[in-house]
Amino acid sequence: MQEFLEKLQAALGPDVVQTEAADIEPWLSDWRGVYKGQAQAVVRPVSTEQVAQCMRLCSQYKVPVVTRGGNTGLCGAATPDARPDNIILSLDRMNQIRSIDTIANTLVADAGCILGNLRRAAQEQDRLLPLSLAAEDSSQIGGNVATNAGGVNVVRYGMARELVLGIEAVLPDGEIFNGLQTLRKDNTGYDLKQLLIGSEGTLGVITGVALRLHAPTHVRSVVLAAVESEQQALELFRLVFGACGPRLQAFEFFTDACLDLVLTHVEGVQLPFGDRHPAYVLIELADTANEEALTQLLEEVIGQALEQELCVDAAVSASLAQLQALWRLREEISEAQRADGPHLKHDISLPIEQIPAFVKTAEVQLRKVSPDCRLFIFGHFGDGNLHYNVSRPAGADKSWAAEWEIRIADAVFEEVMAYGGSISAEHGIGQLKRHAFLHHKDPLQLKLMRQIKQVFDPDGIMNPGKVL
Amino acid sequence: MQEFLEKLQAALGPDVVQTEAADIEPWLSDWRGVYKGQAQAVVRPVSTEQVAQCMRLCSQYKVPVVTRGGNTGLCGAATPDARPDNIILSLDRMNQIRSIDTIANTLVADAGCILGNLRRAAQEQDRLLPLSLAAEDSSQIGGNVATNAGGVNVVRYGMARELVLGIEAVLPDGEIFNGLQTLRKDNTGYDLKQLLIGSEGTLGVITGVALRLHAPTHVRSVVLAAVESEQQALELFRLVFGACGPRLQAFEFFTDACLDLVLTHVEGVQLPFGDRHPAYVLIELADTANEEALTQLLEEVIGQALEQELCVDAAVSASLAQLQALWRLREEISEAQRADGPHLKHDISLPIEQIPAFVKTAEVQLRKVSPDCRLFIFGHFGDGNLHYNVSRPAGADKSWAAEWEIRIADAVFEEVMAYGGSISAEHGIGQLKRHAFLHHKDPLQLKLMRQIKQVFDPDGIMNPGKVL
């Protein structure tokens, strides 16, 4: 171990290779403080070549490597496990935009660039990088791609995967994968970059990404609609999707229990209509220009929806301030949950048309486990993605969550699988869902994944203990 | 070989397993008549289970398998090579739509369904399956996915890959890969279906696909704009992309030489303006509704383009008949080429912003090989995808093409690679480009592809001699 560290420091210098306990300590846990591990060094390279030098030595000495982006993940994928010889490879110093092209509509950036900075850089050039999520001002694009991040605009623009044109990565043996192209079409053999996307640091280290940019959306219009049921939300989705086409930027859902939590714990928010209803849908339309036409379209569609009884009340934003106020009702749910105490979060997806049936039967199953638990269901309804969160019964101690975590998750995931859903829609596997993933995933697919892991990483040094 | 055939016939019956020379003969060549091979049998299963039975026997007896869709490919990927023991596995009898869902916006179909039929089935439900290409009324969706097909609407909707939600396939050993899900989000491990997409039958047999549908485009508007140069077309693309956003459905390009060919060989077509110009751009906008607003937007943008000198003349379609007449100028190019005699076709892609420089220097290189050859450049400009086609000098014999094919291709591909382009944008590798692919592709990527091939197909029975 000493020989490895000496060679690594000789190659990269003591500023890049940090080995003091005090320097390492801040890198050992995830931002939520759920996971904590060990490491012998933190390596913060400034170039792809330095990453390659590091990997060559790690490969030679069989040293496990945990690649770290912005540390905003929710599954512990970027947190080291208990192995004392782990090294943490942080991309934070590789944070340069390599190019933005408004003819080709591409952005090429180092993996350590902060997502929010890339979004703003595109915006300055009158282009849109549509990947948008709560942690965007901390998360790094390399991590976004390595975890195939989602967010609120997936219904229109797809996951991170659909925005990636090319990837540069360093493979475990130190070879540089030169796939940083910006081509829209390239049918020359297997699309290898797809394996790196969503692999959570288990196949290689992403050092650069080429992304496609979209046309800017200068105008937005939002409605909050109250619905009686998930079935009604589904019918409303069908109407809005068909009528608004690619203008449909977000279709979010939350139950009245979620709203209640927000109204209780967050200041300065209010419901735009007098009555409470079982659930709410927040719909955003966006377009390149012509706000009036966009708002008119939204009002027409919502008018039809009210007439056809696909919603029971609705409020369309008449100003940017109103638009933001409506969004806060949805966006503050996570903050309100934090204030309420520990919630058991399940980031799941379902065939969209199965959501109403799932919500019904999942609750029945859940109540068999814990009759009085509290349910908070919200999420990216238009993608079939629910954040199906569960908290302690009223009056119960906050330690309830830790005690019941596994039983609750088992019940939820069993039901998700029965409907052909996914136990991880957008957050990934990491450490958190590894057990459930290995239990539920199709054995043939697991076998193929392990063989592919073997191709890229025969010594198993990339993020051991995560995913597979 | 006899034992294998007997077992295969016993398992699947003589109607499925056809071994008479007369029955096999029609399956031995590609539709253009460029490639011809041999086979011991044609197998036409009616179910995924029959495909699995077939593959189990092929695997046991190490029999090479050439999967065949609609036989519309241009690279010979679905045509057998000279091995006498090949079997041709045709999916044509697996042609049922399994489901269409207008809430989830998904279509699940057998691999043997004709693309055009699926497009019409979606349209009947007021949804759009946007994959559209010249051969759509013959090509099968399994082949479209296995070759990651492109077409005219990629600029808006992406390649076939971006429409695929799930795949069912039979692996070489007969195991069934059950990936036929319709989920929008599923971050559980490596996205294995991405390897099958574009693998041209070298990893497994696609038996079913789940596709996402888009909102219908009930209104369209088209303009033909004349440009002085590729650089002007590029600037025009920037303007239109930014102003029209997701309405931009097609951005096609062709030179005056292509137009000349169409006017010479195709009846009933005419240029909508008096003067000829160096090149032309055909732009289509489409939207869910409101034709007037769409045409007005297109007229405004083209007005700006004329003012800013991003084009030199333009004609906007005022009726469906005019719209179709404008499209014919672009769509009839292939037919006109056929009438003109053999053309050497190069389906290439480039970083879009490099197209003007490429067109200049590629012609210089080409003229060094053949000073008087004739150049016909057209294609999906908005995707950086050119059909860079070359024909014999005026007065030369038609045998010129066959004689010069390799030298011309070498010159074109060298130049493509110098600009960071791709030697196959949307047509794939097959037999046609295998040599060039193995020569030009990055060695690390080739090595990884071979290892992945080994994982899926250790005995090398899937489409040997194609791609890798």
TrEMBL record, chains A, B:
Pfam families: FAD-oxidase_C, FAD_binding_4
GO biological process: respiratory electron transport chain
Cofactor names: FAD
Keywords in alphabetical order: FAD, Flavoprotein
Cited InterPro entries: FAD-bd_oxidored_4_C (IPR004113), FAD-bd_PCMH (IPR016166), FAD-bd_PCMH-like_sf (IPR036318), FAD-bd_PCMH_sub1 (IPR016167), FAD-bd_PCMH_sub2 (IPR016169), FAD-linked_Oxase-like_C (IPR016164), FAD-oxidored/transferase_4 (IPR051264), Oxid_FAD_bind_N (IPR006094)
Top-level division of the source organism's lineage: Bacteria
Domain FAD-binding PCMH-type: 35-216
GO molecular function: catalytic activity; FAD binding
SUPFAM superfamilies found in the cross-reference section: FAD-binding/transporter-associated domain-like, FAD-linked oxidases, C-terminal domain
Family of the protein in this entry: Belongs to the FAD-binding oxidoreductase/transferase type 4 family.
Protein name: Putative FAD-linked oxidase
Lineage: Bacteria, Pseudomonadati, Pseudomonadota, Betaproteobacteria, Burkholderiales
